[in-house]
Write a structure and sequence with these properties.
By secondary structure, the protein is an alpha+beta fold. The protein is built from 5 helices and 13 strands. The structure holds N-(5-sulfamoyl-1,3-benzoxazol-2-yl)benzamide (7B1) and zinc ion.
């Protein structure tokens, strides 16, 4: 029994700080959203988004879960906590747990969800590339969508059905089926927002997090498919 804690320390987030000093910062994500401590939205302008639908996208196995690259096609996210800057969608990906019901990164009043979708945007008003923006405090904006088991999600299924073809880290498949990332968002767009960071290395503190309050439903089969192919990037 004495061996286990040492092994966990070697591979867990606790070691990220050695290679990524940002991970020791003051605005690290994910966090637990304590709803009683969240202030009301005040007079923030509405959050507005527009995504292009008909363009080729690629699904990649980056070694954890899956990621869809927008390949530079046009999109816009503005308003809400983003001031007067316009952000552009770079990629979107998911986080699933290895045990159903505990896959999300953010928790709400200590409760984890089955998974969490992240739509990663960068500030095109101020910076010239994602990489440049990723190093700036107002460089990135990530829309977080909590996933819970319920009815099948048809838009997400356009990606889930491709997972058998990218079972190994680095695998990539391009598809041109029309897909609107706006259909991945919940109907009610109330959200929590806070200044945070990338949740995985390099953990850079450059993310304005916008986490929608309403979870989106995905089927148990869709969770199983994700779990089967993407338990920490290993093929199981
Ligand atoms: N879970 S997270 O906080 O949304 C998160 C965490 C780590 C991330 O690293 C990247 N890098 C690129 O997308 C990228 C895009 C183009 C070129 C290089 C990198 N996006 C991230 C999002
Ligand atoms: Zn993420």
């Amino acid at each position: 029994p004495y061996l286990v804690p040492v092994v966990i320390l070697i591979v867990g987030p606790a070691t990220w700080v050695e290679k990524f000093p940002e991970a020791r910062g003051t605005r690290q994500s994910p966090v637990d959203i304590v709803t009683s401590r969240a202030s009301s939205g005040g007079s923030a302008p509405p959050l507005v988004w527009r995504y292009s639908v008909n363009h080729p996208r690629s699904v990649v196995n980056p070694g954890y879960c899956w990621r869809v690259d927008e390949n530079g096609y046009d999109s816009e996210l503005r308003g809400g906590p983003l001031g007067s800057d316009v952000y552009k969608l770079q990629q979107w990906h998911c986080h699933w747990g290895s045990v159903n019901g505990e896959g999300s990164e953010h928790t709400v009043d200590g409760r984890a969800f089955s998974g969490e979708l992240h739509l990663v945007h960068w500030n095109t008003s101020k910076y010239n590339s994602f990489t440049e923006a990723a190093g700036q405090p107002d460089g990135l904006a990530v829309l977080g969508v909590l996933l819970m088991v319920g009815s099948k999600h048809d838009e997400l299924d356009k990606v889930v059905r491709l997972l058998p073809y990218i079972q190994h880290k680095g695998d990539k498949v391009t598809f041109s089926e029309p897909l609107n990332p706006a259909n991945l968002l919940p109907k009610r767009i109330a959200y929590w927002t806070y200044p945070g960071s990338l949740t995985t290395p390099p953990c850079t503190e450059s993310v304005t997090w916008i986490l929608f309050k309403e979870p989106v439903q995905v089927s148990a089969e869709q969770v199983r498919l994700n779990l089967c192919y993407y338990v920490n990037g290993k093929n199981v």
